[in-house]
Structures are given as structure tokens and as C-alpha cells.
Amino acid sequence: MKMTEDRRVVLRSPRYVLGEVETDHSKIKGFAAFVDDRRMVPDAAMWGWGTVRRTELDTATLAVRAGRQTLDAAGVSPDEIDALVLCSNTFPSEVGEHGDLIATVLRGLGLSDVPVTGITLNRCASLLTGLQTAATMVAAGRHRTVLVITTDAVPDESARLADFALFSDGAAACLISQRVDGAPESYDWVADAHAQDPASMLQGTEISADLAKAANQRLFAETGIRVEEIDGLLHNNTFLPIVMMKEVQAGFRPSQLDTSNITRVGHCFAADPLINLVDRQSAGGVRPDGLYLLASSVSGLRMCVLLRAV
Fold first, then answer.
1. Which among 87, 157, 217, 242 is placed 20 to 30 Å from 102, CA to CA?
2. What stretch of H or E contains 267?
């Protein structure tokens, strides 16, 4: 979806929170056996192994903390929020618990009679799916300001280790709204795209560089922008060689990637692209009018959102 002047949408005030307990990768329960079983070279620098963040809190609390930070940063009161899009890889398995989760998040954020849309199933691309959903709501004129939050934590420590990443607990949030003149930390929504192959969604299937290429082709054909014009690619924080190989195969230069958070925080489920944008922004690495591509790849799916810094 490409945004036109008559339906201008912006992403505003991205923020995130991480699990409050910082743990070196070597201290993760079962890590040594994990490496041995997979016959991985025990070279932390090569893989980007560093620290992960663990929480003692529930995902609702993480969501509230991230959402509050976004509201405070934007200077927006809860009564200015028209809708909430809540994303997670794992919502409660019991349907009866869904209402408890929503009520806890709404109450914690000071929201009341706003519609809530839950986004899941797209795994670590669910945040970008949620952002696209919110952008469509705003572009259609259905809502003026939508709060989007993604929140996740591993169900147990054994799930912190995966063949492609070390997982951290945390949440990220931002506003998707009509453009507000003078609003700080704003990014124009230029366009979004996806590429999907259902046959490749089976568990254990590798991330596909071809799907990233296909999504790029759709995105750049629609906008007339070339891949080399992208100032920064904000990708998932999977193992360093996987990110470098797949994104370079997709047409990006190594200089367009920022891989420092792979070591610093690991893979925080769907929140990675927003986390990486926030950290780039905080470090002064976002230039006015610069182009920044949020992108997530999971088996069988690539999602991307192209933003221009206001």
C-alpha cells in the first residue's frame, strides 16, 4: 500500500522496554548442550552472541510500560487514542483469558471505550502486520490515532534458544496517526509490501532471501525508489551470519544494516525492527528525509514498511 497526499499516515514516537534481568548468553540454561547438539562453532563474535533480557513480569505489564512510554514521548493523552492494535506471538491459550489480558492493558494505559484488534499468527512479523493494519485504519479515515503495541516473553527458558536466534523478552510501541505538524519523532509512511509462500511456512523451513527480493520489487516498483537509496534497514535480530547472508542476497549493502543489537539484546520476537529504529534515532543516526525500511522475515513470509523521517 502506497500512501498518497490525501491519506497521509505517520508513525510516531516509537519506544520499547526489555526484560529487567540481563543475562550473558553463556549463562542461559542449556546453552552449552544447545551448541554441542547443533555442532555450532563456539565463536560468540561470529554468531553475534551477547546478552539476552529476561523478565519476571507478564506480557500485559510489558505492553503497558511500552505503551505509556510512547504516549509520554508523543505528548498524547489516553483520551486521544481511537484504537489499540495489540500484537503477540502467543496470546493466552484459554479464550476466557483474552478478556483479562485486554482489560489489564486498557486499564494500565488509561484507555476505556476503544476498539482492540489482536494480531498474531505471523510470528516475528506480527508487529509489521499490526502496523499495516493500523495504517489502513487511519488512511481510510476510520481512526485518527492508533496505538500499536507488540509484547512477548518466552514461556520457559528452554524456548530462549532457537536455531536462528537467542530470544529476549520485551515490548515495543508506537503511534500510527494522521500527520501532525511539528510532532517530534515522526516518520511518513511511504509504502509497505509483503511476499508469501505458504509451502515454505512449515516448521524448520529456512528464511528466504527470494521472498525479501520479491517484497523489495513490489515496494520499489510502487514507489520508484531504488534499494540503494535506503538509509537504513531495520531487520530482525537473528544470528549475525543469517542476517548478513540473507539481506545481502536480497540486494542490500552491508553498510545499510545495523547489527549491533544482535549482540546487545538478541531477538525480541516481533519488536526488533522498532527497537532498532529507536536505537538508531537515539544515537543520532536518523537524518531528515532519510528512508528507513522496517523488515521482518520468517519462514514463508517477508513483511516490510518503508518510512521517511520527517
1. 157
2. none
201-205, 206-210, 227-231, 237-241: least confidently modelled range: 201-205
Residue 183: count other Cβ atoms within 10 Å of its Cβ.
Answer: 16
To the question of pTM greater than 0.85 for the whole model, the response is yes
Q: What are the pLDDT digits (tens) for 57-102? A: 999 999 999 999 999 999 999 999 999 999 999 887 787 788 899 9
Average pLDDT in the 180-184 region?
A: 85
Between CA 208 and CA 61 the distance in angstroms is 34
Q: What is the three-class DSSP state of 105? A: helix
In whole angstroms, give the CA distance from residue 12 to residue 84.
Answer: 14
Residues 6+ apart with CB under 8 A from 136: 1
Q: What is the DSSP string of the chain?
A: -B--GGG-EEEEEEEEEE-SEEEEGGGSTTHHHHHHHTT----HHHHT--EEEE-SS-HHHHHHHHHHHHHHHHT--GGG--EEEEE-S---SSTHHHHHHHHHHHHHHT--S--EEEE-SSGGGHHHHHHHHHHHHHHTTS-SEEEEEEEE--SSGGGGB-SS-BB--EEEEEEEEE--TT-SSEEEEEEEEEEE-GGG-STTPPP-HHHHHHHHHHHHHHH---GGG-SEEE-----HHHHHHHHHHTT--GGGB--HHHHHT-B-GGGHHHHHHHHHHHTT---TT-EEEEEEEETTEEEEEEEEE-
3-state secondary structure of 196: strand
Q: What is the sign, positive or negative, of the torsion defined by CA atoms of 197, 202, 32, 50?
A: positive
d(CA 125, CA 135): 16
